[in-house]
Amino acid sequence: MDFTNKRGIIFGVANSRSIAWTISKSLSENGASLAFTYQNERLKAPVSKAVKDMNPIELLECDALDENQIEEVFKKVSKSGPIDFVVHSIAFAQREDLGGNFSETSLDGFRTALEVSAYTLIPIAKHAANYINKDGGSILTISFEAANKVYPGYNIMGTAKAALENSMKQLAYEYGEKKIRVNAVSAGPLPTLAARSIPGFNDMRNIHANKSPLKRNITHEEVANTCLFLLSNLSTGITGAVIPVDAGYGIMGL
Ligand SMILES: NC(=O)c1ccc[n+]([C@@H]2O[C@H](COP(=O)([O-])OP(=O)(O)OC[C@H]3O[C@@H](n4cnc5c(N)ncnc54)[C@H](O)[C@@H]3O)[C@@H](O)[C@H]2O)c1
């Protein structure tokens, strides 16, 4: 896949184990120019170190709950050229809302998880749409099968992923006329910072490996490959889709 002369913004690198990092590395190796955001000052140094070799166009602070910061990111990056694609790889839930009884989810915990993990796609897509190349572009988010099925322990994040996938589809409809495609990759469990806060995550990995048709866990690179396909011109007929990269786990009933 050739991303020469293509420019994109990556939201969601925390370190070199982040799914967004592997997507970025692969994009960069295929010629893309990338701008990165980091969530807050604390993450500036680690993110800067993690993406240094990809020669970022920009490295900008952006708390995705702050729409002004999102707008600034698009303004700044578009000053040096058009934007072709955007990756949204952001999620968060309070630790007390992961694990335990779902019915104990607090209103505050519900809001936090849904706002960070689902709502943020909306302002990012809205501002992206003002700056994306007039010939069209691609916006991508990362979901998980808990949007559709119960994964004990994942709790409120399942609700957030359901909202994320539905929002993604509504945005795909809205921006279709502008030739902007919006899709999701639904990844199997991968060891990352965010995944570490999910109770029973290691069991989830083992069950995936045992039950999936491919009899193994997926890799970061496999997720990145499918993301590149969705960000590239090879997928111009696809929008509003959720593509699973899960070694086939999702087809199994037993
Ligand atoms: N790791 C997995 O098993 C897995 C599986 C399926 C889907 N996902 C999804 O992939 C995405 C990336 O997660 P990851 O596993 O790479 O973990 P990660 O911890 O590396 O990435 C999560 C990112 O979200 C960012 N973030 C959180 N709150 C933010 C805010 N308010 N503003 C801006 N950024 C914020 C963090 O800074 C971090 O960079 C998430 O949506 C996650 O739910 C992960």
What keyword list fits this structure?
42% helix, alpha/beta, 15% strand, 254 residues, single chain, 7 strands, seven-stranded parallel beta sheet
Question: Would you give an account of this structure?
Answer:
This protein has 254 residues and is α/β, with parallel strands linked by helices. The chain has a single domain (7-245), classed as NAD(P)-binding Rossmann-like Domain (Rossmann fold, 3-Layer(aba) Sandwich), CATH 3.40.50. 42% of the residues lie in helices and 15% in strands. It is built from 9 helices and 7 strands; from the N terminus they run E-H-E-H-E-H-E-H-H-E-H-E-H-H-H-E. Helix 1 (19-29) packs across helix 9, helix 4 runs parallel beside helix 6 and helix 5 (121-131) packs parallel to helix 6 (156-175). The mean pLDDT is 97. Bound molecules: nicotinamide-adenine-dinucleotide. Residues 12-14, 18-20, 39, 43, 63-65, 89-92, 116, 142-144, 187, 189-190, 192-195 line the site of nicotinamide-adenine-dinucleotide.
Can I get a quick summary?
The protein has 254 residues and is an alpha/beta fold. It contains nine helices and seven strands, in the order E-H-E-H-E-H-E-H-H-E-H-E-H-H-H-E. It has a seven-stranded parallel sheet with strand order 3-2-1-4-5-6-7, sandwiched between helices.
